[in-house]
TrEMBL record:
InterPro entries: AhpC/TSA (IPR000866), Thioredoxin-like_sf (IPR036249), Thioredoxin_CS (IPR017937), Thioredoxin_domain (IPR013766), Thioredoxin_ResA/DsbE_sf (IPR050553). PROSITE patterns: THIOREDOXIN_1, THIOREDOXIN_2. Signal peptide: none annotated. This is Thioredoxin domain-containing protein. It is found in: Cell envelope. Keywords: Cytochrome c-type biogenesis, Disulfide bond, Redox-active center. Residues 1-122 form the Thioredoxin domain. Its main location: other. It comes from the Bacteria.
């Protein structure tokens, strides 16, 4: 069990992905770079996987170098956390401020980096 409230940083990304999702895997190196650059300044990331095969999920985490907290109920599209966030496609990212409020979603690349920098500056 992972508590979102206890996992919040100055900025937190809730990243919905899966090992079988090509676009997710292509996005992972960018998320890894963001984490390396900003974790020490207050960025946290929580990965939520829509995988159903634990071995493939764990292999993807290792291969892609995802060192932040990862969770999954291994329920594919029936993932309860994804349902809570109304996720209908992945990759899906939700950017939360320090209080846990969703302030942006599905940003990529420079837009995501700029939003994280803005939140960390507060």
């Amino acid at each position: 069990m992972v508590s979102l409230k206890e996992s919040l940083g100055k900025a937190t990304i809730v990243d919905f992905w899966a090992s079988w999702c090509g676009p997710c895997r292509q996005e992972n190196p960018h998320i890894v770079a963001l984490y390396k650059e900003f974790h020490s300044k207050g960025l946290n990331i929580i990965g939520v996987s829509l995988d159903k095969d634990a071995a493939k999920w764990k292999e993807a985490i290792a291969k892609d170098g995802l060192t932040w907290t990862q969770v999954s109920n291994l329920k594919f599209w029936d993932e309860p956390i994804a349902r809570q966030y109304n996720v209908e496609a992945i990759p899906a990212t939700f950017i939360l401020d320090a209080s846990g409020k969703v302030v942006a979603q599905d940003l990529r690349g420079d837009e995501l980096k700029a939003k994280i920098q803005e939140l960390l500056a507060k």
